[in-house]
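Cross-posted from the bioinformatics board.
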Amino acid sequence: MTRKLSLAIAAGMLLIGSAASAETLKIGLADDPDVLDPDQSRTFVGRIVYTALCDKLVDIDPDLNFVPQLATEWSWSEDGKALTMKLRQGVTFHDGEKFDAAAVKYNIERSKNLPESRRKSEVKSIQSVDVVDPMTVRINLGAPDATLMATLSDRAGMMVSPKAAEAAGANLGANLVCSGPYKFVERVQQDKIVVERFKEHWNAAKFHFDQVIYRTIPDSTVRLANLQSGDLDLLERLSPPDVPTVKADAKLKMVDVVGVGYQGITINIGNGERSKTPLGQDPRVRKALELAIDRNALNQVVFDGMHLPGNQFISPQSQFYAKSVPMPGRDVAKAKALLKEAGVEKFSFEMQFANNPDATRAAQVIQAMAAEAGFDIKLRATEFATMLKEQTAGNYQATQVGWSGRVDPDGNIHTFMTCKGGINDSKYCNPEVDKALDAARLTNSLPERKKLYETAIQQLDQDRPIIYLWHPKWIWALRANLQGYVPYPDAMIRLEGMRKGS
Amino acid sequence: MLAYFLRRLVGIVPTLVLVSIFVFVLQLMLPGDPALAIAGEERDPESLAFIREKYHLNEPIWVQYGYWIGGVLQGDLGISLRTSIPVTDLLLQKLPVTIQLALMAIAIALLIGIPMGVLSAIHRGSALDWLANVIGLSGLSIPNFWLGVMLIMLVSVQLGWLPASGYESPFDDPVQNLKTMIMPAFVLGTGIAATMMRHTRSAMLEVLKSDYVRTARAKGVRERFVIMRHAFRNALIPVVTIGTLQLGELLAGAVLTEQVFTIPGFGKQIVDAVFNRDYAVVQGVVLCSSLAFIALNLAADMAYFLLNPRIRA
């Protein structure tokens, strides 16, 4: 009798034990994601949430190599105009629909044709998709496109359920149906997005949390307080001034990685009347400005040395970094000489920057450094949306601004620096650069691409429409018991293998 | 009385129309381009053109207003430019949160402010009066943002008693709901309590000096009765006015407090909407809060009737 009773108690405790292990991971985001449809969305934090919800055709590894996800293997045709992909067997969407070649075709066509699609420019090179057999697709291109793999490793490569997308049309974001390791449960705007484990996921064994809650907490101090109190397990974008607090707290730890983005000064070279200044017209003046700035000191003073100084659109850690154009040190005498040569020893211009604490301090340090060489920089703090508008409209002389970065180098440069680039706010135009950047898109050969980018970088170093200054590091703070978190340069939070220790 | 209130009710419509036009024009005067704000990093000319077309951003302002008001008349407040969620859904999601926070804050303010005001008026010049004044002034001068962060540091991080932030619906988990709402309500409430206390005190002092209070005392009415029945009731009129105004402001959203405790109410919503140039959301929230504000004023007028027979005449 007693034995039976104790067995029953033990069984009961086991049950309770397993119920208690229904674990939740709480992640603090710095912004609220926008519409949750990979074809329509624009925000960085939205992509973090997709990492749980949606599988992509391919993923990247921490060294930016492409690895299989929904496509298990792939090959390029001889002429580089067709990419054939073998698809993973046994994958289902959250609504129970089967994933196959027809689904891939549907998704790529949706990215191309949905009127609301923000992916159109990314998949422009794709002309058609053939269903070779139920588990093989061939993607046909108009011309070779070296950026396609990177494109398929991001939102354009995320597969939504064709059935759900067909039914919801442009409103898919209200209830996104993908095939990722977690499925959508609910969203309260500006508060939280809740997802729960998708037990039928092909890789379900590697995901250990039953529920993940993404909470939007824009204020960095409050975000950190929530982590300290245990209301969060992980937060993204720890503010550099908070690093010492995290390091001093035994209950917390920190992980960081250099991202694929950059920060710098974009100069108005040919965008309307306001480009007609010595800074806009004379490369020597721009070079003088660069020589006046001490990138390492800037990083030390403003960011406690957390970021990585750099002088190209990709970081010195990238395999595409052109070693023939090293980062120049500060040289005030040379800067002054260059200004004298250009006939403008004392010179004043206006620089706008986003009115947040980090950008403000950076702008002030730049202003002080440049003053020593003879630049009188008038600072104008501008709210972000307004700043972009001024920049697009040409109503600026210089802007301290950056780019969150793309996995493929093309995404960091082509749209900014080609004559007809969509975001070429400098209105910089150099046929030599265009030629190199266009050619780099058309070849899949790594050495060839490296050479082409080097050509462009050398030319850009002569013209200097953007002075690249630093590459932000992504910093995450975690509860010390959270294990298995691997940082990636694209700053996405991959949940695979993460678990809570005791 | 009925005719008066009916007249007031009819008056609400033109007020709302005026408010909506005013907000619409103000928004368009904001620098920055909503299409750019929506496009984010993908701001190539094609995307921008599509967004402008879809949300009628190319049209003259009165046409844009026409689209909006036409929708409103059919009960459609439009969709959020940023998230594509219908604005009506957003309001229904946020309104209960905002109302709960406002009511809890005002309740805390009343519970602290009125007794403190009455006591310090009765014991004018005493140590109690002095203490109440100090507490009141501190309540007024400590910024909500700072008090909020300090409370989180103390109560959540150090002591671990309450969650640092977040929100849980009272229908899902009432206990957790109270746990998350009590700190923000307290932060908001203390600020208002100070104002309440100051007004109650001065109103009480005023009333206590009046003839009828002296008469009542001369008749030998017990002091307790004089205070509660004769003085306090009349002193309530300005308190009702202030309370209503404060409640109205709370319903428009408590921006900083909501930000600190990440409570998904109107305040956070409208700030984000303005930064993202999400016009439809701004319009919807403002319309909703103005409606609440007007309704509250009406309720306050009704309360005057009940409290003071002289107004009824």
